[in-house]
């Protein structure tokens, strides 16, 4: 009598952050590669690039963000750093750690090259604030470049909900300039293609955020509201 054994599924490999544990740990005490205390002084006139991008996400009903609505779905995508185009940038980090001061290893791909850079989350925004079109709920975070990065600066990612109209947006704000690139071959490559890659990152990130939020909303249950923000207007 013959018997057949059910094949065992292949064992899952280590999580990406475990594969890159040594690289992540190497950035634990790395310094930011520019003077961020003077960031308010950085303008196009002083040699910095200031970029702003935004895209509309599905609107919600007026009032606080819904627990399973567009704002919450975008929060989840943003927290997981799932929105960048994977053929350009992949973020690697410990998923069980706090978002505040998170160290992320960014794996950048261009043509047949791969580069690894470190960034640190510089702050988390969770508040209600006044805006020209009425009060809005804002959630997001930014990160700063660490030593060894080809760029210097900070990029902020925020989700905004207008509490009066229910409109929801994803916004990107970046302050940057080229960093020190010792390898002359990489310096020339970044000089030729760096700006175009910055813009591609922003455009594709907006598009992917729209797609990922839409996919999440298709699975969403009935609406409830999110908890109040950490800080509110007038506090």
Written description of the protein model:
The chain is of the alpha+beta class. Helix content is 23%, strand content 30%. It has four helices and seven strands. The protein has a seven-stranded antiparallel beta sheet, covered by helices on one side. The radius of gyration is 20 Å and the shape is globular. 26% of the residues are buried. Mean pLDDT is 84; it is low at 1-6 and 184-189.
Task: Give me some keywords for this one.
235 residues, single chain, 7 strands, 7-stranded antiparallel β-sheet, alpha+beta, disordered N terminus
List the helices and strands and how they pair.
Layout: H1 16-19, H2 21-26, E1 49-57, H3 70-79, E2 89-92, E3 103-110, E4 113-129, E5 136-145, E6 151-162, E7 168-178, H4 184-218
Antiparallel strand pairs: 1-7, 2-3, 3-4, 4-5, 5-6, 6-7
Helix pairs in contact: 3-4
- What structural category do the secondary elements indicate? alpha+beta
In this structure, how is the largest beta sheet organized?
Answer: 7 strands, antiparallel
The dominant shape is: globular
Hey, roughly how much beta strand do the residues contain? 25-35%
Contiguous helical run count: 4
Distance between the termini: 77 Å
User: Regions with pLDDT < 50 over 5+ consecutive residues?
Assistant: 1-6, 184-189
């Amino acid at each position: 009598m013959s018997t057949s054994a059910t094949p065992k599924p292949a064992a899952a490999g280590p999580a990406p952050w475990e594969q890159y544990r040594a690289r992540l740990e190497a950035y634990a005490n790395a310094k930011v590669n520019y003077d961020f205390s003077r960031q308010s002084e950085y303008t196009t006139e002083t040699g910095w690039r200031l970029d702003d991008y935004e895209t509309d996400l599905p609107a919600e009903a007026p009032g606080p963000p819904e627990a399973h609505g567009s704002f919450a779905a975008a929060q989840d995508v943003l927290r997981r750093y799932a929105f960048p185009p994977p053929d350009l940038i992949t973020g690697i980090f410990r998923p069980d750690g706090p978002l505040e001061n998170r160290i992320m290893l960014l794996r950048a791909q261009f043509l047949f090259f791969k580069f690894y850079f470190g960034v640190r989350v510089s702050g988390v925004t969770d508040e209600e604030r006044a805006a020209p079109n009425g009060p809005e709920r804002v959630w997001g975070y930014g990160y700063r470049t660490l030593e060894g990065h080809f760029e210097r600066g900070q990029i902020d990612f925020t989700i905004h909900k207008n509490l009066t109209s229910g409109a929801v947006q994803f916004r990107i704000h970046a302050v940057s300039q080229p960093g020190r690139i010792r390898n002359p071959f990489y310096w020339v490559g970044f000089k030729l293609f760096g700006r175009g890659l910055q813009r591609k990152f922003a455009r594709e990130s907006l598009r992917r955020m729209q797609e990922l939020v839409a996919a999440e909303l298709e699975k969403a249950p009935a609406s409830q509201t999110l908890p109040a923000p950490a800080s509110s207007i007038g506090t």
